[in-house]
Amino acid sequence: MSKKKIIAIGLISTIVILASILFVKEYNLREIKKNDIDVSQFIITTDELSEGKAQINWKNVASIIGVLNNNNFKNTSENDIKDISKLFLEKSKENNEFFILQLDEVISKLDMTSKQSKRVKDYINDLEHFGLMPERLDPNDKYAKFINTIKNAAKINYEEHNILPSITISQAILESNWGESELSKDYNNLFGIKAHSYWKGESVQIKTSENFNDVITDKFRVYKNQGESIDDHAKFLKENPRYKNVFDNKTYISQAKALEKSGYSTVAYEDGTLKYKDLLVQIIRQYNLQLIDSEMHGKKAS
Predict the structure, then answer these.
(1) Backbone angles phi, psi at 269, to 5 degrees
(2) Which helix (H) or strand (E) segment is 189 a member of?
(3) For residue 159, what are the CA distances in angstroms to 60, 164, 181?
(4) Domain 136-299 of CATH type 2.40.70.10
(5) What's 68's DSSP letter?
(6) What is the pLDDT of residues 115-136, one digit of tens each?
(7) Could you tell me where the DSSP H helices lie in the chain?
(8) What is the pLDDT of residues 62-103, one digit of tens each?
(9) At CA 117, angle to CA 113 and CA 121, rounded to 5?
(10) What end-to-end distance do the CA atoms of the chain give, in Å?
(11) pTM
């Protein structure tokens, strides 16, 4: 075999090897490695940075880190998450309040290529039904269906009354047992609001549970639809002075704390410590409800 042929074969072999390496690399980058993501770490860290400001979307942060680190999450640190999370927070010059920047604005800050930008968005799509409890996030699951049924009303409620969608939805889940309670199914009362003497609307007297354990018989408000129940729930909070602090808070953990502190529920652990805030936060994180807040905090900027 001539020397030229040997060189040619060597070059071809090298090209094939390099092409194979590039193919494997691209294949490994194709879908985000969900199982390598410490979801709890991303949620807790983004929540800490969001507190008192605006809600950061942990999935957006994870997707950007995934692209920057070539889909390797095994060595992702808290500081890595914080560094990217901070890029999403912006303070308004008009009212000095924080809001969430759009994804493309953060991608631009990082000077990402168009290919990287596309991959970030592909990774976000990969995470659409992913979280702490992926099995509960299937859109065909009854839990996701209930959330989607009231999500738009919760968004409108936030724009009109400033109660975060995550708080409205998580309270509805807790108070109505996912819309399965008699009050919810038959009378559209998602929050178990009673019909006191000043209530001018329709009411019904039924036996129901209170604080998840106590059984009571009382008069409760009746609504035409769930949207009316959500709107009245916000008005109920606004008209009651003890809940004033709820509206002063910007993020879901703070609003949940304020509700508990204001005496919305007396449900407690065995040692007597109140746990209503913990129940709300747990639901919000399990079902990614804080991401709806993040969406609304982004809209506030426009």
Answers:
(1) -75, 175
(2) none
(3) 23, 9, 27
(4) no
(5) H
(6) 999 999 999 999 999 999 998 9
(7) 3-30, 39-50, 58-68, 78-86, 103-109, 114-126, 142-161, 165-176, 182-187, 226-239, 252-261, 276-286, 290-299
(8) 999 999 999 999 999 999 999 999 999 999 988 889 999 999
(9) 170
(10) 71
(11) 0.87
